[in-house]
Design brief:
Cytochrome p450, alpha+beta, two-stranded antiparallel sheet, single chain, 459 residues, five-stranded mixed beta sheet, 10% strand, binds protoporphyrin IX containing FE, disordered C terminus
Length: 459
C-alpha cells in the first residue's frame, strides 16, 4: 500500500483555523458528544476547521458544498479511504480497505446488482420479508420499530447476497446482529480490538469472525458446486461468475471479507433510516396522511421525497473521511499528506444557507427536485459514494409502502426522539417508537409478485 508523500516543504501547506485543545480532549468530546462538538466548532471557526484527534492526527472538517465537492472529486491517488477502521475490522478483502485501481476494479465488479433492473428484481423479497416480520407487530401498544427493521433489512441483504435460505443462512441470521453491534464498538474504540483474554471484546470478535468465515466458506463451496450457478441472481453468484470469467482464482477469504462488508454496511444503516422515518412521520400527521393516500396507488413521488428528507434531517452516518496522500488543494488551503479531510454530513444538512427552513421536515422540497449532489450527502460522494445507495433507497421505499398499506401509524405529540450513536450509525433514542393498527384489508404475506425471481433466488 502506498504511503502518504510528505516530501514537500511544510511551509507550502496551509491549514484552516481551529481549536488548540489537546487531541485527547477532542477525541473524548468527539466520542461522547460528536454532533454538539461539531455544531459548536463550526459556529466558531466556519466551514473549514482543523483539529487534532487521537489516532487520526490532523483532521480538517469541511461543511460547505464547494469544499465537499473538492473532496469528492479529488483524484483517487490524492485522497484515499485511508486505513478506515471499518476496513481494519472487516478485513483486507473489504472495499473499505482498498484504494485506487484495486478499489475501482472491485467496485466495477460489485456494482451491477445494486442498480437498475437487477436491483428491482429484489422487490418481491423486500416485500415478503417486510410482511413476514410485520405480521408479529402488536396493535395499540408502543414498540421500538428498529428491532423489526433490523430483522427485515438483515434478511433482505442475506437473501440478496447468498440467495437460498438454508441452515447456514439461519446461522448467519443469528450471528450477524451481535457481530454488528460488537463491530461498531470496536470501530470507535481501537483499544478494544486487541485480544485481552477470553471474555474481552477483541477475543469475542475473533470467535464470531471465525464462525462467520466458516459459514461463508461453506456457502461459497455450495455455490461453486451448484450446476445452476449461471442462472442464479444472488450477489455471491454474480461475483463468482465475474471471477471465473476473468480466469481469476477464487480467494475465499477475500470474497468472505467483501460479503461481510455488504452484510454489515447494508442492514444497520437502512434499519436506522426506517426507524427515523417512523419517528418523523408520527410527528407530521399531514405528510403521513398524504403518504397513506399515495400508497393506495402505484405512485411514489412523495414517498421517495420523504425518504430523501428523512436522510437529510436525520442522517444515519454523520461524516465521511479521506486520508491525504499528496498535497491537496482545498479552496484557499493546502492540506499536507498524512492529514485527514472529513465531510460533516449533519452540519451541512442543517445549514440554512444550503437548505431553506433547514430544521423543518418538509419532504415536498424534493418532490419535483433532486437533492443537490454536494449539499445532500447522506451516502457520501465521489468514487467512494455508498455502493448500496440506490438499493437502500429502493428498500426503504418498498418497506414504507408495505407498512403504509398494512397499518395505520398513530401520530404522536411527544417531542422528537434524540439521536443515539451506535458506533457507526445514528438511530432514534427510543428506537423509532411506533403504535399501529392493522388495516382491515391489509396485504398478508402473499404470493410474491415475481415468482420467477423467487424461484431463481431459492434454487
Ligand atoms: C440508508 C442506508 C445507508 C446509508 C445512510 C449509507 C451510508 C454510507 C456512507 C456515508 C458511506 C461512505 C461514503 C463515502 O465515504 O463517501 C457508505 C459506504 C458504503 N456503503 Fe452504505 N449506506 C447505506 C446502505 C448501504 C447498503 C444497503 C449497502 C449494501 C448493500 C451499503 C454498502 C456500502 C459500501 C460497500 C460502502 C463502501 C463504498 C466504498 O468504499 O467504495 N450501504 N455508505
Amino acid at each position: 500500500m502506498p504511503t502518504a508523500d510528505t516530501s514537500a516543504a511544510p511551509a507550502a501547506y496551509r491549514l484552516p483555523p481551529g481549536p488548540k485543545t489537546p487531541s485527547l480532549l477532542n477525541g473524548i468530546a468527539f466520542l461522547f458528544a460528536r454532533n454538539a462538538l461539531i455544531r459548536r466548532l463550526t459556529a466558531t471557526y466556519g466551514d473549514a476547521l482543523t483539529m487534532r484527534m487521537p489516532t487520526f492526527g490532523t483532521m480538517v472538517l469541511v461543511t460547505r458544498p464547494d469544499l465537499v465537492k473538492a473532496v469528492y472529486t479529488a483524484k483517487p491517488d490524492v485522497l484515499h479511504g485511508g486505513k478506515n477502521p471499518l476496513g481494519e475490522i472487516l478485513g483486507p478483502g473489504s472495499l473499505f480497505s482498498m484504494d485506487e485501481d484495486e478499489h475501482l476494479n472491485e467496485r466495477r465488479m460489485l456494482l451491477p446488482p445494486f442498480h437498475g433492473e437487477r436491483m428491482r428484481s429484489y422487490e418481491s423479497i423486500i416485500e415478503e420479508e417486510a410482511l413476514r416480520e410485520m405480521a408479529s407487530w402488536p396493535e395499540g401498544v408502543e414498540f421500538a420499530s428498529i428491532g423489526s427493521f433490523q430483522t427485515i433489512t438483515l434478511r433482505i441483504i442475506l437473501r440478496a447476497v447468498f440467495g437460498a435460505a438454508g441452515r447456514e443462512l439461519a446461522e448467519l441470521e443469528k450471528l450477524l446482529p451481535p457481530m454488528t453491534t460488537l463491530g461498531q464498538r470496536l470501530v470507535t474504540t481501537p483499544i478494544l480490538r486487541r485480544d485481552w483474554g477470553r471474555r474481552s471484546p477483541g477475543a469475542r470478535w475473533k470467535r464470531m469472525h471465525a464462525e462467520y468465515m466458516r459459514l461463508a466458506g461453506t456457502l461459497v463451496d455450495q455455490h461453486l458446486a451448484d450446476p445452476g450457478l449461471d442462472e442464479r441472481i444472488d450477489i455471491l453468484a454474480l461475483m463468482l461468475r465475474a471471477l471465473l470469467a476473468e480466469g481469476d482464482a477464487v480467494d475465499k477469504s477475500a470474497l468472505a471479507d467483501e460479503l461481510l462488508t455488504l452484510l454489515v454496511a447494508g442492514h444497520e444503516t437502512t434499519a436506522s433510516a426506517l426507524a427515523w422515518s417512523v419517528e418523523r412521520l408520527r410527528r407530521h400527521p399531514e405528510i403521513l396522511h398524504r403518504l397513506e393516500e399515495e400508497a393506495r396507488g402505484d405512485e411514489n413521488a412523495l414517498r421517495i421525497a420523504t425518504a430523501e428528507e428523512v436522510l437529510r434531517v436525520r442522517p444515519v452516518i454523520n461524516a465521511t473521511a479521506r486520508l491525504v496522500m499528496k498535497p491537496f488543494q482545498l479552496g484557499e488551503w493546502t492540506l499536507p499528506p498524512g492529514s485527514r479531510v472529513v465531510t460533516g454530513i449533519a452540519p451541512l444538512h442543517h445549514d440554512g444557507r444550503f437548505h431553506e427552513r433547514a430544521n423543518r421536515f418538509e419532504p415536498d422540497r424534493y418532490v419535483d427536485k433532486k437533492p443537490d449532489t454536494y449539499a445532500w450527502i447522506p451516502f457520501g460522494g465521489g468514487m467512494r459514494r455508498c455502493l448500496g445507495a440506490a438499493f437502500a433507497q429502493f428498500e426503504i421505499d418498498v418497506v414504507l409502502r408495505t407498512l403504509l398499506r398494512s397499518f395505520e401509524l398513530q401520530p404522536t405529540s411527544e417531542p422528537g426522539e434524540r439521536e443515539s450513536f451506535r458506533g457507526v450509525a445514528f438511530a432514534p433514542s427510543e428506537g423509532g417508537a411506533a403504535v399501529v393498527r392493522r388495516r382491515p384489508f391489509a396485504a398478508q404475506a402473499e404470493e410474491p409478485e415475481s415468482a420467477a425471481v423467487m424461484t431463481a433466488l431459492n434454487s
